[in-house]
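Justification of resources, computational component.

The compute hours requested in this renewal are based largely on the per-chain cost of generating structure records like the one below. Each record pairs the submitted sequence with a full C-alpha cell output. That output is archived, and it is also reused by downstream analysis tasks.
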Amino acid sequence: MNVIDKIKGGLIVSCQALEDEPLYSPFIMARMAKAAELGGAVGIRANSAIDIQEIKKLVPLPVIGIIKIEYPGSPVYITPTMKEVETLVGCGCEIIAMDATNRQRPDGQTLKEFFTVVREKYPTQVFMADCATYQEGLDAAAMGFDLIATTLNGYTEESKNDITPNYDLISALVKNSSKPVIAEGNIRTPQQLKIAKSYGIHAAVVGSAITRPELITRRFVEAMNDMGTP
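The structure output for this chain reads:
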C-alpha cells in the first residue's frame, strides 16, 4: 500500500515545537508522536531533521516532514529551498511538505520553477503543497504536487481575513482539485474535524489542539476569565 492510501481517512498529528517553546526537544517530540500513534493517528507531521530522525526511531507511522527556516527577503519559511528538500529526503520522509503559496521565494524562483527542478530530481518522492488560497491549490495540483493542503490559509496577506477552519476552501478544493486534499490549519475541536471530513477530504492534520499544551492551557484560562470571579 502506498503512503497516500495509508493515510486515507485518518488523522495526522503535527508534533512540533520551536526553540522558544517549552517542549522543544527531539526526545519529547518523539514521545509526543508515540502518544499520537497510540491514540490512533495514521501519520505524523514533524519539523527539522533531528526531530524526524528521533520520531522514526520510535514510531512506524508515515512522516510528513518539513524544515522551518527563515531566509532574508522572503516570507516563505516551510521547506523553502532545495537544501531543505535534500535534507528531508535524506531523513526518509514518506511525504515532504513545502510552502506552495505565490509569495516571493528566497531563491528568486517562482514556485513552478522551483518545483519543476525538485520533481525532476526526486520523481518518486511524495510532495504535499501547503497552500493558502483556492487558486494556489489548483495551481499546485497542476504542477504535480501529490497532495494539496490548506495549511497556510489565514496566514498570508491574501488570506489573513478568512475565517478558519475554511470549510468553503476545503469544499472547493475537494470538488475541483485533481489531487487528494488534506485539511490542515486551525482545526481546534473534534466537531470541526467532523465537519471538514464531511466535505470529502482525504485526511486531516491537527497540531496545536493536541500537541501544544501552552496554547491549550491558554484557551481554558481565557474561558475561566470570561466567566469572571464568582
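The radius of gyration is 17 Å. Residues 3-188+200-223 form a domain with the TIM Barrel fold (CATH 3.20.20.70).
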